[in-house]
Write a structure and sequence with these properties.
Layout (H helix, E strand, L loop, with lengths): L14 E2 L1 H10 L4 E5 L3 H6 L1 E2 L3 E2 L5 H8 L5 E5 L3 H13 L5 E4 L2 H7 L4 E2 L3
Parallel strand pairs: 1-6, 2-4, 2-5, 5-6
Antiparallel strand pairs: 3-7
Length: 119
């Protein structure tokens, strides 16, 4: 007999798909933070529901003031390259549980992930 009938999402991966994040959110995983590193105006137009805005220019300072170093962080930007750069900066500063959300907002919307904003 299986030890658990409840599926448990896989642990955070350095590169994650929107499905990985959606699975954790659908499961009710409260111990994660979604960080959008696009500029504030773009963030305000539309972003992943529950994401916080930390533009690249202020990323490390904002993260160090408001996030715990052992927190699971899903980061996304305007491009996968910007996402990778943001993840690298966070890791270099000591945030080790960082996942690059591949495809960003457009990939999230493609799987019908919840979004919010003025758009």
């Amino acid at each position: 007999m299986p030890s658990s009938l409840i599926p448990i999402p896989k642990p955070l991966q350095p590169q994650s798909s929107p499905y990985d994040l959606k699975e954790r959110l659908d499961w009710g995983e409260p111990a994660l933070t979604i960080v959008d590193v696009r500029d504030r105006q773009t963030f305000n137009q539309q972003h992943i529901m529950g994401a916080i805005c930390m533009p690249m220019s202020d990323l490390v300072a904002a993260a160090s003031q408001s996030l715990e170093a052992d927190r699971d962080i899903y980061v996304y930007g305007a491009t996968d390259e910007q996402t990778a750069e943001a993840a690298l900066r966070l890791r270099q500063y000591g945030f080790m549980q960082v996942a690059e959300l591949k495809g960003g907002l457009s990939a999230w919307k493609a799987i019908r992930g919840s979004v919010e904003g003025a758009a």
